[in-house]
Amino acid sequence: MNWQLALPEIFLSCSAMAILMYGVFARPERSFVMSSMLAVGALLLTAMLVLSGTPGVGYNGLFTVDAYSHFAKLLILVAVGLGVVMSLDYAEHANMQRFEFPILMLLAAVGMMLMVSATSLMTLYLGLELMSLSIYVLAAFARDERRSAEAGLKYFVLGALASGLLLYGVSLVYGFSGSMSFAEIGRAMADPKTASPGLTVGIVFIVAGLAFKVSAVPFHMWTPDVYEGAPTPVTAFMGTAPKVAAIVLLVRLLSDPFGALLGQWQQLIVLVSIASMALGSLAAIGQRNIKRLMAYSSIGHMGYALIGLAAGTGAGVRGVLIYMLTYVFMNAGTFACIIAMRRQGRNVEGVSDLSGLGRTDPAMALAIAIFMFSMAGIPPFSGFWGKYFIFTAAVQQGMWLLAVIGVLTSVIGAFYYIRIIKVMYFDEPAPAFDPRPASLSFVVGASGLFTTFFFLFPAPVVAAAEAAAKVLFR
Amino acid sequence: MLFATAVFAPLLGSLVALLFGKQIGDRAAQAVTIICMILAAICGTSAFVSLVYGGGAPGVVTLATWVSSGDFSVTWALRYDTLSAVMVAMITFIATLIHIYSVGYMGHEPHGSVWRFFSYLSLFTFAMLMLVTADNLLQLFFGWEGVGLASYLLIGYWYHKPSACAAAIKAFVVNRIGDLGFALGIALIFVVFGSITFDAIFAGVSQHQNDSYSVLGGTFRAYEVIGVLLFIGAMGKSAQLGLHVWLPDAMEGPTPVSALIHAATMVTAGVFLMARMSPVLEYAPHAMAFVTFVGASTALFAATVGVVQNDIKRIIAYSTCSQLGYMFVAAGVGAYQASVFHLLTHAFFKALLFLGAGSVIHAMSDEQDIRKMGGIWKKIPLTYTMMWIGSLALAGVFPFAGFFSKDAVLEAAFASHGGFAQYGFWCGILAAFLTAFYSWRLLILTFHGAPRADKHTMDHVHESPLVMTVPLMLLAAGAVLTGFTFAPQLLGEHWQHFWGAAIHNGPNNHVMHDMHEVPGWVVALPAVVGLSGIALAYIIYMGMPALPAQLAERFGGVYRFLLNKWYFDELYDRIFVRPTMALARGLWQVGDATIIDGIPNGVASLTAQGAGRVVKVQTGSIAHYAFAMLIGVVVLVSLYLIIR
Question: Which positions ≥6 away from A124 have C-beta within 8 Å?
Answer without folding.
Answer: A115, A118, A170, A249, A253
